[in-house]
Amino acid sequence: MTIMNDETREFVAMHRNEDVRELALKAKRVEGLDLPLALDQIAGWQIASKKLPQWASCEGIVYPPHISMEQCSSQFTAQYKSEIAQTLLAPAATVRARVSDSGESDNQTTKSEPQLSDSAESDTLVAKRAMVDLTGGFGVDFSYLARGFNQATYVERQRHLCDLAEHNMAALGLDQARIVCGDGVEYLRQMGPVDFIYLDPARRDEHGSRTYAIEDCTPNVFELRDLLLAKSQYTLVKLSPMLDWRKAVADFDGAVREVHIVATGNECKELLLVLGRQVHEEPSAPRVFCVNDNQRIDYDSASYTQGLRIGGKPLPEAKNYLYEPNASIMKAGCFDLVEERFGVTQVGPSSHLFVSATPVADFPGRGFAIEAFGGMNKKDIKRLLNGTKQANIAVRNFPLTAPQLRKKLKLADGGPVYLFGTTMQGCDHVLLRTSKI
């Protein structure tokens, strides 16, 4: 790892908020200034200020090249993994939400609170706890997971990432961190038992192409299943949100205790599986957690279908409100759970939109007041639009795409009107004119 000299450090401090591309063209070449390194640090800090504000507030952090910063975990997703670990290992009486504890909100972080070790110091750990991150990378996830453990080991094959992690963990005040440069699988085979293991398999094949299947990632966690169960109480595996979580659970053959579908900004970011030893002789279905920022629901996956149960609950006579679940629920497919828990009704098979006669204050997604709805004939369309020239358009289980529907209706984008094209019970294609609530 290249350490910044005084000239480079001063340049970064002076130009931290400036456009990196303009700096690359206009910056004066000063003796001792490592301009490529300085530009990497400025670009890294600018990404971190939005994605990792606690890191950005810490003086002394060294950032990797741009692509690594784009691909690393956000503060929200890293904190959520820490919450999972602490909840799994904590006695029932001490379980509490860790995301709110570990830094207030992202926007409240200040330079007077640069270290990430505060919650590890403030919590009284029941016993000496040890964790291992077998795929260390840039170390963002490790830095948050490590806070709740007395001993935390980071394992990474690439020497420059190990050097970077060693520097940054010290800057963050994580004295319990131990950096090991080596192969994670080999380390797993020779290490002693620990309380918690974290794995984020590389989703690139030998040619550098993106891959999603678990068996195509490095390492192949299926092959390590029994070893992971033998060496840790729990293992948290980060997988692509593109995967079918039900198939992944089945492929792990009874080892999955929890499924966490994590979204932020209504975009699915991660699929997390918690592996653990089977407690009972009969395999139990995992608990599923759907997270989208501060919206969270959880349920026993054995209790609900894939959301295809339509017809048992008729549509309400008064269809006054429309609800669209957030991305984590869409991924989970627990639509009959949503019906039961929030008192809403699915509009039709595979439409994944819900209606109700009365408003639902805590619905995990977007809510709209229905102003009118009708079919696709010219008379209904004219009545629905009522002179509207622009609208936000979305479709669910509809024969036209959103751009096709926009073109057909000759509407510009934006404005206060939200139009939904969908299929209702009875296979009727309808348009719903709504306003956001």
Radius of gyration: 25 Å
Number of helices: 16
Runs with pLDDT <50, length 5+? Answer: 92-115, 117-126
Strand order of the largest sheet: 3-2-1-4-5-7-6-8-9
The percentage of residues in β strands lies in 15-25%
Task: Report the average pLDDT across residues.
Answer: 87
Instruction: Write down how many β-strands occur, each being a DSSP E stretch of 2 or more residues.
Output: 16
The percent range for helix content is: 25-40%
SS content category? alpha/beta
- Overall 3D geometry? flat
Largest sheet: 9 strands, mixed
Q: Between the first and last Cα atoms, what is the distance in angstroms?
A: 51 Å
Keywords:
single chain; 437 residues; nine-stranded mixed sheet; 16 helices; flat; alpha/beta; seven-stranded mixed sheet
Structural account:
The chain has 437 residues and is α/β, with parallel strands linked by helices. The chain is 32% helix and 25% strand. The chain contains 16 helices and 16 strands. The strands form 2 sheets. Strands 3-2-1-4-5-7-6-8-9 form a 9-stranded mixed beta sheet, with helices on both faces. It has a 7-stranded mixed beta sheet with strand order 11-12-10-13-16-15-14. α1 (6-15) crosses α3. It is flat, with a radius of gyration of 25 Å. The N and C termini lie far apart (51 Å).
List the helices and strands and how they pair.
Elements: H1 6-15, H2 20-26, H3 35-51, H4 53-56, H5 66-71, H6 75-89, H7 118-122, E1 130-133, H8 140-145, E2 151-156, H9 159-171, E3 177-181, H10 184-190, E4 194-199, H11 221-231, E5 232-239, H12 245-251, E6 256-264, E7 267-276, E8 287-292, E9 295-300, E10 321-325, H13 327-332, H14 335-342, E11 345-346, E12 354-356, E13 365-374, H15 378-385, E14 390-396, H16 402-409, E15 412-424, E16 428-436
Parallel strand pairs: 1-2, 1-4, 2-3, 4-5, 6-8, 14-15
Antiparallel strand pairs: 5-7, 6-7, 8-9, 10-12, 10-13, 11-12, 13-16, 15-16
